[in-house]
Amino acid sequence: MRTVKLTKEAISDILETMLQRSPGNYGAYEARVTEILRQVRERGDEAVFEYTRQFDKFPADASNIRVTEEEILRAYEETDPALTEVIRKALVNIQKYHEKQKRNSWFDTSGDGTMLGQKVTPMEKVGVYVPGGKAVYPSSVLMNIVPAKAAGVERIIMTTPANSEGKVNPAVLVAAKEAGADEVYKAGGAQAIGAMAYGTASIPKVDKIVGPGNIYVALAKRAVYGHVSIDSIAGPSEILVLADETANPRYVAADLLSQAEHDELASAILITTSEALAERVNHEIHNFLQTLSRREIIEKSLDNFGYILLAKDMEEAIETANAIASEHLEIVTRDPFYVMTKIKNAGAIFLGEYSSEPLGDYFAGPNHILPTNGTAKFFSPLGVDDFVKKSSVIYYSREALAPIHKDIIQFAESEQLTAHANSIRVRFDEES
To answer: Rounded distance, CA 183 to CA 341, Å?
Structure first.
């Protein structure tokens, strides 16, 4: 990993480099995605089946596109029972965490005849996209479905690609069943996003689409936004470790590599006040790379988007961390809890040397669907709030409206909205 002393110019260059990984820069793929979505919107199932045959080599049709109960039972038989038990343990933690996020409707009345409030209503149908290409992620199945279930969503539809034999990864199906998916369909890519956004004879239209995916999925989600809601347009994974001289270099190196192995566009950054730590972390990374299975991917990731940044003090290190706004932020310092109070921008914050990032990916409970590419400055992790709608509730009696009705009329007329003013005035015609 390259080591850089922090300057304003260095940070500006790094932020510019990081933004190159954004799905907003994938213009070369947009025309293809637009055409796929147009075909699905106009031709429905026929287009979905054609693209599934073309891309996944699976001869999909109306009779086999939906995963059956028999297939789910077979998935349990084919999944290591120990893994099934781990999925169930993780599920308990994720459910407990997200249950605490639930909000209730509220109403506030006063003696003058008014009632104001907020009605919280879960969405009716949500679509969950689960990738199935280079790697499979049953953990993401849990992270997407559990908050929707906690919110009270009535119907959860999941799509995921099958192999050429029409088989979905067994662990993914087990996770979907355990988490509470109502229906699972064997469709992937932009065509699956289009099917859930527009609806076909086989795959129902949903109110919101969540879940990670490749470039085609990310661009398709962006294109259908407005027809449906989406969670976010996820970019490549990233980790930032904020460390001082007390950090264990072996732990820090291992944690940086845990994200670099996702893909060539992943980012791993260490910000430290200690040159000695920086040198030792680089040495540990070199040692780990000799044995890790995804070495080629990791090396490309580190060459392009890996940095060790040397800060003159912890204040500069924290300022830089807030500027980068990383998806995952580990704080490994003498007093991580104090440093955490200074952090404004991060998707998930991990405190101390035993809170490594994979703990959050799999087991602790908080969601691992997180804002990337600096969007932690204004986005939050996926949660229960993403699956509910809030409606304002307003009630005024005549007695409550009377003393303020002329104020409203004046306000409306100042904006030249005479029909607005009239809708208030007619209720007091007899008094004029």
So the answer is: 42
Q: Specify the CATH class of 2-22+235-365 in words.
A: alpha beta
So where are the chain's domains? 2-22+235-365, 25-230, 397-431
* Catalytic residue selected from 98, 178, 284, 328: 328
Respond yes or no: is residue 50 known to be catalytic: no
Whether the model clears a pTM of 0.85, i.e. scores above it, the answer is yes
In three state form, how does the secondary structure of 300-318 look?
Answer: HHHHHHEEEEECCCHHHHH
In the residue annotation, 42 being an active-site residue is answered as no
Q: Which CATH class is domain 25-230?
A: alpha beta
In sequence order, which ranges of 57-188 are alpha helices (DSSP H)?
69-78, 81-99, 138-151, 170-179
Q: What is the pLDDT of residues 86-141, one digit of tens each?
A: 999 999 999 999 999 999 999 999 988 999 999 999 999 999 999 886 668 899 99
**Residue 420, annotated ligand binder?**
yes
Sign of dihedral through CA atoms 164, 168, 170, 171?
Answer: positive
Residue pLDDT, tens place only, 195-227: 999 999 999 999 999 998 888 998 999 999 999
Catalytic residue among 327, 330, 353, 357: 327
Q: Give dist(CA 21, CA 199) in Å, integer.
A: 31
259 annotated among ligand-binding-site residues: yes
25-230 shares the fold of 2-22+235-365: yes
- The pLDDT of residue 432 is 58
Helix axes 295-305, 8-19, angle to 10 degrees: 130
Q: Is 361 annotated as a binding residue?
A: yes
